[in-house]
Amino acid sequence: MEIGSVKTVCKPERYMGKSENAYWLRERKCEMNFAQRAPFWFLTANNQPRIIFADAQDFKAAMNATAVGVARTNVTEYMHVIMNNHGHWVFGGCSENDCMAFWSYWRNSMAAVEEDKGCKSDLRKWGCHLVEVTDLKQLRSVIAYTARNPYNSNIDCSPYGYKWTTADLIYNNNLIENAIATEINSVNVNERRRICRTRDYNLPEAYRFYDGMITKSSYVDIRGVEELFVSGKQYFRYLARNVEADIETSRFVGEVLKVNDSDMFSNVSSWCHKDYGINSIRELTPTQRVDVAKRMRYDYNSSNRQIANILRIPEDMVDRMFP
Asked: Between 20 and 30 A from 218 (CA), which of 64, 69, 111, 165?
């Protein structure tokens, strides 16, 4: 990246210090891993206008359908998250058709769950968005975006505290599920059919069960994810990235990300200091408030109410600005 007219020049390897050289070598290894396992894909189940997964049993069905879908298709899963009306998956080493085969199986499985409850389901027409991830930096960003999705949806937990994701597997050597899970061969046929929601219950021998679910570590390439990052420290830096990074990634994957009030307030306060040389939002002039309102609306998808509350502008005035 260039800052003004100053160009960044990479030092030749022979001039690098030992720690810098070691980091460079690990980064090169990550790039090689990316190239060997490409192509990578980011699959999004489009937001539904209603709640699809209302309780733990619904979420478990979605998680198990993911596990069975991975076993039945040629995809390799790196991470996924299931929210109450949408989901995200990161796949690698497979084709676009493989991803769509997974999607078809998973979507139809979710429709079957609703139909088993006596409901008429429209989920067999559930749409998705699939995008190819073509560079390592972007792949790291979509992995972090997937892990951060519960937080971005205003769920008060860390990526390691949300149950319906595989984000908690990465750089976590204390997986309790591995110690207490049941091997697939020790589960009777009826129980396998119940968990998999299909009479075709044949699954890989590596699959294990715990608490009514196929364990997440059975079907996620945990080591594959970790080998895309230089270290755990780099991975957690990506998880801790700011709102701007999430907005950029959401545009790449075709989503509209809503920023919560707390993060948006922090952003606007930062703009006041950096862009206008003032200490608080209260000190913004009317012209500056209009400029900030446009930035919030067009760059961060802020609602009229959020703009009014943060900038302390009458909501009817904001409604006239953004009808």
From this structure: 111
Report the side by side order of strands in the sheet with 182-183: 182-183, 208-210, 213-214
Terminal CA-to-CA distance of the chain, rounded, Å? 38
DSSP E strands in the chain: the ranges are 40-45, 76-82, 87-92, 128-133, 182-183, 208-210, 213-214
Q: What is the pLDDT of residue 260?
A: 74
Closest CA to 31 of 121, 134, 106, 179: 134
Phi, psi (deg, nearest 5) at residue 48:
-95, 150
102 contacts 70 by C-beta, under 8 angstroms: yes
Which residues make up the CATH 3.30.70.1290 domain(s) of the chain?
31-252
Identify the pLDDT of residue 181. 79
The two tokens of residue 88 are 């995200």
Determine the Cα–Cα distance for residues 236 and 144; give it in Å rounded to an integer: 9
Sign of the Cα torsion 168, 110, 124, 258 reads negative
Q: How high is the mean pLDDT of the chain?
A: 85
CA–CA separation, 189 vs 186, rounded Å?
Answer: 9
CATH classification of 31-252 is 3.30.70.1290, yes or no?
yes
